[in-house]
Amino acid sequence: MHVSAEEVPPEGFWQPLTGGIKGDETAVQAVAREVFEETGQVVGEGEFRFVADGIRVKVSADFEVVKSLFVVRLPSQVVTVEPSEHDDFRWVEPGEVSGLLHWESNRETWEQVQKVL
Q1: pTM
Q2: What's the CA angle centered on 90, arms 109 and 22, to 5 degrees?
Q3: Confidence (pLDDT) at 4
Q4: CB neighbours of 104 closer than 8 A, spacing ≥ 6?
Q5: Residue 7 above 60 pLDDT?
């Protein structure tokens, strides 16, 4: 997914599907919701494959994110981009992903995902 150039950094950047837990959601409920919000596709919670948990990413001196990673095969290659979050998407071969990702933390988590593909 491509984050608009209106965000930081000014040229925009590519990132995998991301998001956070809302309210009392479980991690898998949150990832199913995020997949729907960011792609328009409905995927059952049981279809996600767990990759890793507890991955810490320091965003700033006083803010850290703890990630859980999942993979899933989407039911379709048709993606509906949510324009308030992204301005484009692209399907690429697994070997191309790391070179497109802007943030080091995304490249590090992609390495973990590749181990289960």
Answers
A1: 0.87
A2: 55
A3: 80
A4: none
A5: no
Closest of 85, 110, 114, 106 to residue 15, by C-alpha? 106
C-alpha torsion 40→74→76→108, nearest 10: 90
Q: Decide: 52 and 68 in contact? Cβ < 8 Å.
A: yes
Indicate the helix (H) or strand (E) that contains 36.
Answer: helix 27-39
DSSP 8-state code for residue 106: H
pLDDT digits (tens, 9 = 90+) for 38-97: 999 999 999 999 999 999 988 888 999 899 999 999 999 999 998 888 999 999 999 999
Q: Burial of 75 by CB count in 10 Å (0-12 exposed, 13-18 middle, 19+ buried)?
A: exposed
2 burial type by CB count under 10 A (0-12 exposed, 13-18 middle, 19+ buried): middle
